[in-house]
Each structure stands twice: as structure tokens, then as C-alpha cells.
């Protein structure tokens, strides 16, 4: 699929359109994905994906398990670089610049595009050191400045109150939900431009989950957020745009309100209303 | 699932497994007990028994053990082995005595065990003390003797200090070509003082009598230790046992390793193992990191892995041969030609020594460290690596800050295994630097303090040497046991140190699921 086709509804199968994708104006886009395909060995995981992610907004990726959401996020962070099994084609532009371009330092890119993984993975260090990890990789900071950033990150991730008295305990003594918020804080501390969240609330209780949602809404003013979630309500509550993926293809991409109230395709409707297609 | 009772279908396997474990532990315990009993008992001051035989002959000795033997006529008799000492008088320091022929046994307090620099022990009755041929009448005899012995020791100490600190450096200076009148004078003065001390020490003589009635004059300077076991209280015996043990641990060997202590061997073993660990750890860890984290995983890395694992199975003597050919003759010869040409043809590094032995053993244990470290690296979840990368770490930063700290306990496991293997190796050492006798330990006050080119002693080789190269098997046996026990102890201490270190690190870098 090429970008030229993405503005229109494409008709392939009998009577049913294949995909419905809105075009975000180039000036508003921070990330642009262009005809991205990816295979693990022989098995395709992404097939010709094209979309533009708007700046300073929350974009939700939804879709059934195994449809390629995590794979897509890993492309944006270039985490597939190390996997020899992966073959990839297409382009990804961050602020107009190809992230696979020859002049791009991977470490620098990953600093700009922060990633929070599906399963919490704090380092076996203290809570403080976990959040300081990304900072310590950069130019050395005054301890006071570092402490400020760490506090800010922990406050932003709605974790500060729970850990402020035990910052030097091992991060592994935290609960699963706390660990998830800790890794969010750890990523925020690096101050990325784009934040990739892979099901950040899946291990959280409803209250923390709401806190995270609030955090995401607040973050919007500073950065662009891509959120993968299986929770339709959550996607509806926090995101501005929603992309529905299935079988490695982008099926429908629209403003969240439109997609949930008035899906263009029956495949989308079936998924969000919970019907099996 | 059924939990109560014996699980159905498992049959006798759990019992067999538990049984064989118990058997192994039992055998280990028996081994240690044997070593401890035979080895440590040697230092206990055994009583001196004066035995009268049915033909009127007398002998004095310390009973060692009994055996049933068949006589030439074909009937069985019990015989008892006595340590009788007096090798210069009777020719044989051990006597088997038929128990049935003993008519009387006494333990008279006056009998003494006297250790000498040459000819081994005397088991005799002290008669008198003489100074320059004149009989002394100080009483009681034994305490007078002990006082003089003590004085003699002080004199010997002064003499040794003079020799080591004054005479040797001056002689070296003069030999180096400095013609220094003052130094020459001081040398002469010191030598005169030594002669004086020697004369003073040679004056005192103890006259003793053996059980057979032979008399002997023993210069006190010849005596290293003396005690009267029958006159000692249990507390004194315990003290003597401790002091004997301490001498064994802290002193150098004497009389061609058949007496004295094993300190240089302990020191050599520990130093060699530590050096080996220092050498093997960085190489092994780097190799494992390259193999697991850096090299593209493929057929080649697979082959390398198999090769490394098989290397661990190569007999150690083969490593010894390799060390001799490559390190000693190859590298050592080169070093000598380049840096020590003035002392050739006598080699400096071109002969076995501490460095080459450590290197050879490092090579021997390299596979162990590589395999253990790689296993540790494989246990680290990829999520940890990805988390670091996603925060903007380069691969090197990820390795240094996340992967290596988490793999540290595994590396230490590798080092522990390496130590366990290396400390027990003797065969390759014989080719690359162990010495039968090297009373000079490889660390001293002379620059550069650590003398890597020196030969060193090793407990394992010492066991071999004492046990099989000495003339007196009965005397060597307890030393063999004691040295073997010590070797086990040294390995245990080294391993425990590493295990404690690992425990400490584990607490700091615990991996998920291991805490
Ligand atoms: N490392 C890998 N090697 C091979 N195949 C993989 C790998 N990772 C993912 N896949 C496959 O790629 C497809 C997409 O996986 P992905 O993890 O992106 O799904 P997902 O949409 O994130 O699912 P979920 O919602 O369950 O997290 C799946 O079929 C999966 O089996
Ligand atoms: Mg996923």
C-alpha cells in the first residue's frame, strides 16, 4: 500500500473496503511511517503500514493480540536492530528525518523516542538509580539538578508518594504496578519527544490506571504519546487518534471520537464492540 | 496430584538417590576424618614407654600402631610399632616388637624426646649438662637444660640476623665491585662476631643415655626442640600440640622436607592460585562476553563453544607441556634474551617459575570461567538489555552498567570452580615451576617485592615429595596426611572467600527469581 491510496477508501474484497485511514497534515506530524513491512524470519508481522502520528497528542494503537502492535513500537525505537531474524522495509521519519538514516546515532534516537515495555523491567538497582539510569548516560549533572529531575519524573508517574521514603531500596521490592510506574518514570526522566507506551496499565489497579491516564493527558503538552492498549475505554478516554491494526495491517485510523462512535469498517466495529470477526 | 505417602510409580529411585548422596557424604567425612586423625595426631606429644622384653633387652619409644603378622613358621603374632628415634645409634628409627615378648612397660618421667637438626629424633634419658667439657651441677637438670637451650636460641637468632642483614648485603656490595674499605671492615667485624656466637653456642653439650645404655653428647646448638612427654600434664601437652602445629604451619621445611613446616608451600599455593585467578578472570569474562554478547550468533560461535567446553577435558599434564614449551622456553627464553642477557646462560624467566605456573593454570581453568560466565549472561533476561538500550545506552554502556553487574555472581562462580580445580593441580606444575625446596617465598622486601620468576613450593607437590621421595616412610606418612589436610583446608578457605564475596554481590545485584 502506498501513501497515495491511504486517503481514500480502498475497495478490495467483495463490497467491503480494505482500510480507512485519515491523513494528518504533514506540518502536524511528528512521526511518519511509510509503507513499513516487517518479517520475523519468513513470518510477516507488519504489512505495508503507512500513517502519520500527530505531534503533542495521544495516539492509541488497538488491535487483537499478535496483530503487531508491539512490533511496530519496537520499529519506532529501532530495537529490532539487534535481531538478525528481522527483515524490514519502508521508512520511518521522526520530525522529517529518517530514523534509519546513516547520520542517526541509535542511542540518541532512543533517547528521543522513549519506550515503556509491556512487562515492567526495572534494573536490579535502587529505585533512585533506576530513574537516574538514563541521566547518568548523558552529560553529568549536579546532584541537586538530578534529584529534581528524578523527583519530577516520579511525581509525574504518580509514584513519588509511595517511594519517597525508600528511594534507595531495591526496585524489585516494588509491586508489579509500582514497577510499571517506575519504568514510566525512568523513561520520562530522559525527557523524550515521543513516548511509546506498550500497555502501561495492564498490570495496574483501576486507581493507578486512572492516574496513568491522567499522566498521559498531562504529558501531551510536552511530548507526543503512542499508547498501545487492549482497553477500549482507556483508548477512548485518553487518546486523540486511534489506529486499529489487524494481522499486521492498518485497518482504520481516525480521530478517536469518530472511530469509536462511528467506525467506517465493519472489521473495526466488530473488534471494538467485542464481536469475533 | 497425590501428595501423601510414597508417590505411586516412583519405585525405589528416591531412596537410591538419597542413599548414594548419603554414601558420598559419608565417604567425604571419612576421608577428612582420616586426614585429620592421622595428620593432626602426629603433633601430639605421645608418651615415651620404656619396654622390657623377655630376653632382658630394653627399648624406649613411642607406640604408633599394632598389626597382626604371620611369622615365618606360619602362626599369627601381634606386633607393635615403636618410634625409637636414635637413628645414629641404632641405625633404625622404628622398631616392630612382638607384643607377647613384652614383660614390662613403664613411663618414666625423665625420658625425653629431643629433636635435632640432623639425624632426627633422640629418645633418651638426659644425664648431665656440660659446658666446654666441664660438667655443670645446676639442678634440676631439665630446667637448667631448657634455660640454656633458650639462651642458645637467642644467640642463633642474633647470628641469623647478622648474616641476613649485615653480612649478605655487604658481601653483595663488595661482589658488585665496590671496593669500599669501610664496608670491608664492617664485614670482617660481623664475621668475627658470628664466629664468636658460634663458639658460644657450641660450648653447651647435653649428655644422654639411650635405653640400650649407649651414651651420646649432643651439642645444644644441634637441638631444635626437646620435651619430656611423660612429665607433661594434659594442658601442657595441648599447649605443645598447638605449638607443634603452629611450627608446622609457620616454618620452612627441614632435613629435605622430612621435618619442619610447610609455610613456604602454603604461601606458594595461595599466591599461585590468587595470581591464577587474577589472570584468568579478565580473559575468561571478556571471552564469554564476546562470545555471548558481541559475536554474531551462528555456526562458528557454536563450534567455538563446543571447543571451549572440550578444552576443559584436556588432561592437565598436556597443559603443563604446553606451558613448558610456550611460556617457559618460548616466552621466557625471549624475555631472557631481551632483558636479562647479562645473566645468561643461567635463565631468569627461561625456567619454570611462579608466573608461568599461574599462566598455565589460568589457561587450564579458562574454559571453566568462560562457560560459567556465559551461563550467567544467558540467564539475564533480554528485557534488561532492551530497557537499557531504550533509555539511550550504547551497547557498551548496556554491557557495563546492566549486563556485567548482573553476571557478576556467575563470573565468581566460574572463579570459584577455577580455584577449586587449580589449587588441586600438581601435574602441570611440575613442568612449569614448582620446586621441591624453595624456602625463599616469592614475596619479600626486595624490589620488586613480588618475584614472579622464582620457583615456589606447593602443598600438592609437597605431599608427593614428602610421601615418595623421603627415605623414612613411617616418618613421612603423618606429614603427608597433615599436608593433605592442609591442602584441603586451603582450598576450602579460598573457596569460602569467593563464595562469601559472591553472596555479598548477589545481595546487591539479585536477579529476578534468585532472591
Ligand atoms: N521475536 C520474535 N520472533 C518471532 N516472531 C515474533 C517475535 N516477536 C513477535 N513475533 C510475532 O509477531 C507477531 C506480532 O507480535 P507482537 O508482539 O507485535 O503482537 P502484539 O500486537 O503486541 O500482541 P499483544 O497484544 O499480545 O502484545 C506475532 O505473531 C508474534 O508471534
Ligand atoms: Mg504486545
TrEMBL record, chain B:
Bilayer topology: Multi-pass membrane protein
A Pfam family of this chain: BPD_transp_1
A GO biological-process term: phosphate ion transmembrane transport
Transmembrane segments: 262-291, 311-332, 352-372, 402-423, 479-501
InterPro entries per the UniProt record, alphabetical: MetI-like, MetI-like_sf, Phosphate_PstA
Subcellular location: Cell inner membrane; Cell membrane
GO cellular component: plasma membrane
Keywords, comma-separated and alphabetical: Cell membrane, Membrane, Transmembrane, Transmembrane helix, Transport
MF-aspect GO terms: phosphate transmembrane transporter activity
Chain ranges of the ABC transmembrane type-1 domain: 266-498
Primary location recorded for the protein, binned into one broad class: membrane
Family: Belongs to the binding-protein-dependent transport system permease family. CysTW subfamily.
PANTHER family: PHOSPHATE TRANSPORT SYSTEM PERMEASE PROTEIN PSTA (PTHR43470:SF6), PHOSPHATE TRANSPORT SYSTEM PERMEASE PROTEIN PSTA-RELATED (PTHR43470)
Listed name of the protein: Phosphate transport system permease protein PstA
